[in-house]
User: Fold these one by one.
Assistant:
Number 1:
Amino acid sequence: MRNLIWMVLACMAPWAMAQSYFGPGETKAVQGSGAKFADALLNMSADQLQCSLHQNRLPADATPSFLAAQKASIQYPKGDKFMGDWQKGGAIFNNLQKANCFSCHFGSPANLGGDVGPSLEKYGLQRGQSEAVQRYTYEVIYNAWSYFPCTVMYRFGVQGLLTPEEIADVVAYLLNPASDFNTKPALGGKR
Amino acid sequence: MRKVVLIPMILAFVGAFFALTQQDQPLDPFEEAMKQREQYLKTFGILPGDLFASQGEELFHTKRGPAGKSLEECDFGLGPGQLEGAYPYLPRYFADDGKVEDLETRIVSCMQRIQGFKPQEINRDDVVALTTFVASKSSKAKMQVVPKHPAELAMYNLGKQLWYTRAGPRDMSCAVCHDDHAGKRVRLSPVMSPQQGLGSEWPAYRFEEDRMYTFENRIQFCYASVGIPAPAFYSEPQIALTTYILAEATKAGHSFQELPFFTR
């Protein structure tokens, strides 16, 4: 019985915290902007709420548990095959409607990149293809918050924006030495 | 009325015109917009934004609505009909309806109170044209949004809360781009913080979209482009974010651009 009470309380925690981020008057104001807008803003997940409350700068004492929870959310592709089809990965990387990686990262031979994120120019040639590099690259794309708490990069796997297999395709696009990403010059020349 | 007919005529040329002037080498977006602007002036002798402003001017002075009145009685904060320099003080608190309103919301509330329109009778295109006209009377003016009234302070605080809210399937907030990566580029577009003068260019004609964008249009576009359903026009979150952004830009001493602005 006691366990049940704790479970119910634990389930209510994100709701209770979301209520405290927006006060009652603010909640009402947000609801006045339409049901769909209110639904997105008033139902932050527990981790989104932490980033909102701390304005994207998690305090040191909150960081280890945050990172551990993010790491635990990662699901891996079948047989831990981190590198898939680089050509499919390129189509995902360079599609504005899909992963849209180039909007923030420089290095694509197909699209001029932005500089919100670090340059990925010749990523596979710089880092090699060790199992550790493959796993790291996969994990950052699946859940960037497992390494960089509250960063702007989308959590592609966690949020269901890409499947584990699609993420493995993008890993291959970045790492495979035969990939256009590593054989062709980045569009826009060296920055 | 002649000007109103001119708008669709001129806009009909825009598509072909835009295609003809595209470059192989991507230009800096600001330089590109300035180039397009010069082309417009050379070809048509007028900018699209100015056509919207003159449409708004006509609407402003025309007796309309169930009450058959013009908007000349509408007080934008400096007294009825005082338009010069009114926009930079908005959003602000208005005692006559007890609300904090941005320019667009103020126009809508005047259309209801003075002209007798019902909310569902108010045409968005009219509001955009009227907003463009009133804002054009404050071209290049210094921003003056300094929340003082308790309702203005509450609006500023709500805007600040919204600014930092991480939400939606892409975990986005305004701050995670516009503060944390200010000065960087998303593709070719520069990311600006309020402290760098974010918000100084609206209302603007966006030639890529071939549309007039007000501040509220821009906020809707922002949310929609990060996968969060856009907040409704004239709602408090719109006014709150506008208050927060313009108050921060005011603190940093920014002025508006030439209004209506011309941008990509």
Note: Residues 2-44 of chain A form one domain.
Number 2:
Amino acid sequence: MDLDSLLRALEATNFATQIRENDSLFPWIESFHVLAITLVVGSISIVDLRLLGWASRERSVGRVTASVLPCTWAAFALAVITGGLLFSSNAVTYIHNTYYLSKFTFMGLAGLNMLVFHLHFNRGVESWGTAPTPPTAARVIGGLSLLFWIGVIACGRWVGYSLTPLPGTTG
Amino acid sequence: MRTKALMEFCDWVDSTPLSQAIQSHAWVVPTFQTIHILAIAAVMSSILMINLRLLGVAGTDQPLARVSDRFRPVVWWALPLLLATGATLIIGEPARSLANEYFQLKMLLLLTVIVLMQLFQRPLSRDPSYWEPAGGRSARARLLAVFSLLLWCGIVFAGRWIAYK
């Protein structure tokens, strides 16, 4: 079974059909998706700006991440669930959309960037995290994270302009 | 609300050279929407941090006044950016936005939340401990936080629904 037929099976499921055919289900799920994404990107950027040494400078990196990241993960979970539901409604179309694939490339890069941070820098965060301006490597990670997440949002928005309009939508 | 005057105004905006220029370049609307969403992300996360602190859920190692000083300016910087990008989107598609019920609802919610933010901020700048639990106003503080979060969620939702009218 190749990917396309697997995705067609997903599109044929009861809930995917409901989302595709019901007039208000898609926009409702999409609203929660947008809300979740704004909270993911907004809260991550609070950490990124701290890593860059551009904001929250008087507060240690450890404290900033401790108060912000639980919100980020909760919002991310909501974004994944709602995003998965939206995807299921038109899976084959989305998987062949360049912007959709670019969005996930940016998300992968953001994830990789975060992994590097956790593996190499987070252990010593108690010592370097109190300095208003973090070490260069941490600042680079913060800057890259900002750029990757801006990429995620931009590509996500362009997906809506590169598909045949769904019934009832204008973008 | 779709009065005759409003529709005539939309037609006039639609006919201006600026609107025509926006309409003839397909990249303009999604680009400004992207900036608009990024600014919303800044506002939403800042509002969340302030209100979670007001609820006593997150950031409790800092006084509320400091959390508010860190995040309130983000909201006031993002609002003009939202207004500018929003205005560009309106000029590009005036009838789709101005005459749209969800857009009108969004503006109503925005005005309400700005009033609410003043109710929060004014006493706080007079007295940094005004909303702290010891002040005996924790019920009002919680109510304010919940209403503010709901209103901002409503603004995001109404914004998305503009595309479905």
Note: The longest helix of chain A spans residues 61-89.
